[in-house]
Amino acid sequence: MNHILTLLSLGIALTFMAQKKKTDIAKTQLMEHLSVLAHDSMEGRETGTIGLEKAARYLITHYKKIGLKPYAANGSYRQWYKLPYVEDGMTTDKASNIIGMIEGESKPEEFVVISAHYDHIGKTATDVYNGADDDGSGTAALLAIANHLMEEKKQGRGLSRSIVFIAFSGEEKGLWGSEFFSDHPTFSLKKTTADINIDMIGRIDTERNKADTMNYVYVVGHNKLSSDLHPLLDETNAFGHQLVLDYKFDSPFDLERIYYRSDHYNFARKGVPVLFFYDGMLLGDYHQLTDEIEKITWELYKKRVDFITDLLKNFANRTNMLKRDIPLND
Ligand SMILES: [Zn+2]
């Protein structure tokens, strides 16, 4: 046998395997992070309180441990901002977004953002709103994805573009953290191909009564700012995932106005293509004391995280940035 040909075919086979391997995030990581973030000791992570600060410190500890590059300003993970107003019960007038980065191999000056909000709605005199799904699920996913991508980079499978991980605060108060960030970005939004925002992906929508309840995710924003989004969602899904991608909240008649209700919106208003991943929980335990970790559907949660990670890789590695049908408005 011709050994040049053998090496050549081995090379092709290895390249193929590297590209075709579906992401497999460790469920134990999601469990580990969520059990801390949604614990009573985090006091419901309300912006302006010590609970939020405890969560911020937890995130920074893990950003460091994973090896993310600080990407706020002055070599820091923290982007501080002054709260627009201080409410009763708040003990500080400032909060921070936690920003870290994994540098791209061949296009380090182009970015894909993955975001989730780490704040929630706090506590009462007797009870804590743990916000396991909202948005402990997105925040834990952020850490698990960062760890996974860093492990792959160490094994020589780094991504072409840089990936920026942003844990936003102030979301529940009115998207404060992402509003501040989008007006004071710490890297170029023009060079940001997309923001993938995760806010609530650990549960099954109590109102959803379909055969696919163990295999769906709502995807919001797919038809808004870039006509590349839909084909790339389909392409990634065909990569062994086969999730039901439900676009119902992209209907112009969506009365809940979901597209405007989480942090991706502050990227969208700057012209950056966005996708928002969401489980659809609006009734049931939404903003209730019962949004607890015991109600997380781990298998489905993990499936969604695997899909989101492969989509992120797809965005990071493709030749061109996503086409912008509507240009940046600044
Ligand atoms: Zn939320």
Please render the helix and strand layout as text.
Blueprint: H1 3-20, H2 27-37, H3 50-66, E1 69-70, E2 78-82, E3 94-102, E4 107-117, H4 132-154, E5 161-168, H5 171-174, H6 176-183, E6 192-198, E7 216-220, H7 229-237, E8 244-246, H8 264-268, E9 274-278, H9 298-317
Parallel strand pairs: 4-5, 4-6, 6-9, 7-8
Antiparallel strand pairs: 1-3, 2-3, 3-5, 7-9
Task: List its salient traits.
330 residues; alpha/beta; Aminopeptidase; globular; binds zinc ion
Tell me about this structure:
This protein has one domain (about 25-315): 3-Layer(aba) Sandwich (Aminopeptidase). The N and C termini lie far apart (about 60 Å). It has helices at about 5-20, 25-35, 50-65, 130-155, 170-175, 175-185, 230-235, 265-270, 300-315; strands spanning about 70, 80, 95-100, 105-115, 160-170, 190-200, 215-220, 245, 275-280. With about 325 residues, it is of the alpha/beta class. The model is unreliable at about 1-15 (pLDDT under 50). Helix 7 packs across helix 9. Strands 1, 2, 3, 4, 5, 6, 7, 8 and 9 form a nine-stranded mixed sheet that branches. It is built from nine helices and nine strands. Zinc ion binds near residues 117, 199 and 262.
